[in-house]
Amino acid sequence: MKNFEVLTEALAYIERNLEEDFTQQDVANACYVSLSGLQKLFRYAVHFSVGEYITKRRLTLAARLLCSTELSVTEIALQYQYHSPEVFTRAFSRLWGVNPSVFRRSRRFTELYPRLLLHQNGG
């Protein structure tokens, strides 16, 4: 049961801090586990590394903003902790297959990497 609680807390910490600058070690510290333990648990349960999950969630939320706001690509990049529009554009293009400007003009948003929600039944 402890692994479930650790994973739940890790996901909650990540979601609360997606617009903040944090490290994978910060997530592990918040869950009172080692980084290597958290990484193993994540890989087993989610099939992504902690870093991949964070990146995919940030880019999913960025894609939502591209489709629902008039914020510039630079503003969105900075909001999700990309310190340059070029780095953001490369990461965005790798995940979505097009650059952010093309995505904004030609796509309707689908939440490809939704937030993971875990529920524990009482007992």
Overview of this protein structure:
There is one protein chain. With 123 residues, the chain is an all-alpha fold. The chain has 2 domains: 2-47; 52-106, Homeodomain-like (Arc Repressor Mutant, subunit A, Orthogonal Bundle). The protein contains 7 helices and no strands. Helix 1 packs across helix 2. The protein starts with a helix and ends in a 17-residue tail after the last helix. The model has no long low-confidence stretch (mean pLDDT 90).
Describe the main β-sheet briefly: none
CATH topology of the largest domain: Arc Repressor Mutant, subunit A
Helical residue percent band: 55-70%
Task: Determine the N-to-C terminus distance.
Answer: 11 Å
CATH superfamily of the largest domain: Homeodomain-like
What characteristic shape results from the CA principal axes? elongated
Number of domains: 2
Overall average residue pLDDT: 90
In CATH terms, what is the architecture of the largest domain?
Answer: Orthogonal Bundle
Rg, Cα atoms, Å: 16 Å
Q: What percent of residues are in strands?
A: under 5%
Helix-strand makeup class: mainly alpha
N-to-C series of helices and strands:
HHHHHHH
Low-confidence stretches: none
The number of helical elements comes to 7
Task: Let me know the number of strands.
Answer: 0
